[in-house]
Design brief:
It is built from ten helices and ten strands. It is globular and about 50 Å long. It is α/β, with parallel strands linked by helices and 296 residues long. It has a ten-stranded mixed β-sheet with strand order 5-4-1-2-10-9-3-8-7-6, sandwiched between helices. 29% of the residues are buried. The protein has a single domain, classed as P-loop containing nucleotide triphosphate hydrolases (Rossmann fold, 3-Layer(aba) Sandwich), CATH 3.40.50.
Length: 296
């Protein structure tokens, strides 16, 4: 069990407090408004952010004083942290150690990890020769190779398209089930929480609370989550109605050419003059003057 006991994090004027109990093998999303402290909480668990007060325990053991490398934690960041001058195989092998002097058994472990994430045969490629999804798989293979009990995801798939992102989330869920790892995932997308996280920690207004059942929390969200779309059903996307354009006829823009037709003509010139810029609001000349100009 992961325990955050009276944790107090202070960075300048920012304060975050947390009292959490995360069960072994749980898959937990960490959501909340931007700037609420989600990544800060993740950094504290990983050992990158110091605590002002409290302690962090894993399986009853206090790990607060341990550095990141000594904690049972693997972290997958948003930028994947791949070295551009190293091959795919070497980037993954860093999960075993920085020397990159692999024994035959270790090379077999790296190959097995690459095969598990669908990158078999790409061992010699450099990150620049891979797609965004393939780069994410390389980083995931390295995390898989480390075999740590806690897997922390800090929005690693936010730059991927919807289909590829769903595929990567499903792969993460499968790996966590196979390895029985405990997953903590920072996300701004409530769809990610619905997809693979039965439980959710809410970080808002200086506190981290939970974990709550994800379905119940997103069905009746608190005010802090309504701003990020948590009150909408799965698949909902925020869209704005198309603006109404005066004088265009059925919402069309004045002077535009509809598909397969002539340019539209304004229906109400007076209305167009009323909303035109000041330098274009000249009233039309009286008909008599125009006739006089024509005769001359």
């Amino acid at each position: 069990m992961l325990t955050l006991d009276g944790v107090d994090i202070r960075q300048g004027d920012f304060t975050l407090r947390a009292d959490l109990r995360i069960a072994d093998g749980a898959r937990v999303a960490i959501i909340g408004p931007s700037g609420g402290g989600k990544s800060t909480l993740m950094g504290a668990i990983a050992g990158f952010v110091a605590l002002a007060w409290g302690r962090i325990c894993w399986q009853g053991r206090d790990i607060t004083a341990l550095g990141p490398s000594a904690r049972p934690v693997s972290v997958l960041f948003q930028d994947n942290n791949l070295f551009p001058h190293l091959s795919v195989l070497d980037n993954v092998a860093l999960g075993l150690g920085p020397s990159l002097r692999l024994k035959p058994a270790q090379r077999g472990q790296v190959s097995a990890a690459l095969a598990r994430v669908g990158l078999e045969g790409l061992e010699t490629r450099k990150p620049a020769q891979l797609s965004g999804g393939q780069q994410s798989r390389v980083a995931l293979a390295r995390v898989l190779l480390q075999g740590r009990a806690l897997l922390l995801l800090d929005e690693p798939f936010s730059a991927l398209g919807p289909a590829l992102k769903s595929e990567m989330l499903a792969l993460v869920a499968e790996i966590c089930t196979e390895t029985r790892a405990t997953l903590l995932m920072v996300t701004h997308d409530v769809g990610d929480a619905r997809a693979i996280a039965p439980q959710t920690v809410l970080v808002a207004e200086g506190r981290a609370e939970g974990p709550f059942a994800t379905a119940g929390l997103l069905t009746s969200p608190p005010p802090a989550l309504r701003a990020i779309g948590a009150s909408h059903p799965p698949g909902f996307m925020h869209t704005r109605p198309a603006p109404r354009r005066g004088g265009g006829g059925k919402g069309g823009r004045v002077g535009t050419r509809p598909r397969g037709g002539r340019p539209r003509r304004p229906r109400n010139p007076d209305r167009l003059r009323r909303f035109a810029p000041p330098w274009r609001r000249r009233a039309p000349a009286p008909r008599a003057w125009r006739c006089a100009d024509t005769r001359s």
